[in-house]
Amino acid sequence: MYDEEQPDESDDSLPGLGNADDVIIPNDEKQKKKRKKILLEEAKKARNRGVCYLSRIPPQMDPVKLRQVLSQHGEIDRIYLVPETKQQLPQQVNRKKAGDFRGQGYEEGWVEFTNKRVAKRVAHMLNGEQMGGRKKSSFFYDIWNIKYLSKFKWEDLTEEIAYKHALQQQKLVMVNSAAKKEKEIYMDKVDKSNGLNAIEERRKKKQKIQEQGSAEQQEPKVIRHFRQTRPVKDDSAQPKSQMSRNVLAGVSNHISISLYICNA
């Protein structure tokens, strides 16, 4: 009898050691239901959220300070402020020269309240009013420029930011491509100019050499004629020869006379 009841006891005492599918499937279903419930709650919260737009952010105002100020009027979820662009940098430089704020400035921003009714009420209450706070605060006399965005969700903002970022990247690529093309055109012009200058220098050098050669060929040879006097005859040799002739003639005459006398 023990052998017959053993399978039943094993099934009742160890229900958790059954088939693996019997354990995983219920857990997966619970997790799915839990996730679905969380998503529904998040969707409900998202539908209840409201977004306000700030067209101007005072100097020295950052997300932390803005949250501190607006949290007094309602619960805030997310804040996004747009940093100053290059067009706004000269103003920041002027503030630095004047000894004013030296940190990061912001142009505009969005604030998400957990309740859209609160967001609408805050925008209606603060818009056009003085910020106030401590008198020593740098934005004590600044005016709120805040507006409630009806039917606007944070996802719309993220999509807009992503679109602007992609558009900015596309413009940057186009600008870089145009700059690269202009650089290539400029370098081609420089190379052509250098080549033309080199050709012109060689042409001038060759022309100069040809001009020098033609000048040397065309230069006439100057033949100078000097007027010469008649050559002077050397008469010193003639008297000597004449003298020798006279001496010989005298000797011959003397010899002939002597012979004649002897013969006589």
From TrEMBL:
<comment type="similarity">
    <text>Belongs to the ESF2/ABP1 family.</text>
</comment>
<feature type="compositionally biased region" description="Acidic residues">
    <location>
        <begin position="1"/>
        <end position="12"/>
    </location>
</feature>
<protein>
    <recommendedName>
        <fullName>RRM domain-containing protein</fullName>
    </recommendedName>
</protein>
<dbReference type="InterPro" id="IPR034353">
    <property type="entry name" value="ABT1/ESF2_RRM"/>
</dbReference>
<dbReference type="InterPro" id="IPR039119">
    <property type="entry name" value="ABT1/Esf2"/>
</dbReference>
<dbReference type="GO" id="GO:0000472">
    <property type="term" value="P:endonucleolytic cleavage to generate mature 5'-end of SSU-rRNA from (SSU-rRNA, 5.8S rRNA, LSU-rRNA)"/>
</dbReference>
<dbReference type="InterPro" id="IPR012677">
    <property type="entry name" value="Nucleotide-bd_a/b_plait_sf"/>
</dbReference>
<dbReference type="GO" id="GO:0005730">
    <property type="term" value="C:nucleolus"/>
</dbReference>
<dbReference type="GO" id="GO:0003723">
    <property type="term" value="F:RNA binding"/>
</dbReference>
<feature type="region of interest" description="Disordered">
    <location>
        <begin position="1"/>
        <end position="34"/>
    </location>
</feature>
<dbReference type="GO" id="GO:0034462">
    <property type="term" value="P:small-subunit processome assembly"/>
</dbReference>
<keyword id="KW-0539">Nucleus</keyword>
<feature type="domain" description="RRM">
    <location>
        <begin position="50"/>
        <end position="135"/>
    </location>
</feature>
<keyword id="KW-0694">RNA-binding</keyword>
<feature type="region of interest" description="Disordered">
    <location>
        <begin position="204"/>
        <end position="224"/>
    </location>
</feature>
<dbReference type="InterPro" id="IPR000504">
    <property type="entry name" value="RRM_dom"/>
</dbReference>
<dbReference type="InterPro" id="IPR035979">
    <property type="entry name" value="RBD_domain_sf"/>
</dbReference>
<dbReference type="GO" id="GO:0000447">
    <property type="term" value="P:endonucleolytic cleavage in ITS1 to separate SSU-rRNA from 5.8S rRNA and LSU-rRNA from tricistronic rRNA transcript (SSU-rRNA, 5.8S rRNA, LSU-rRNA)"/>
</dbReference>
<dbReference type="GO" id="GO:0000480">
    <property type="term" value="P:endonucleolytic cleavage in 5'-ETS of tricistronic rRNA transcript (SSU-rRNA, 5.8S rRNA, LSU-rRNA)"/>
</dbReference>
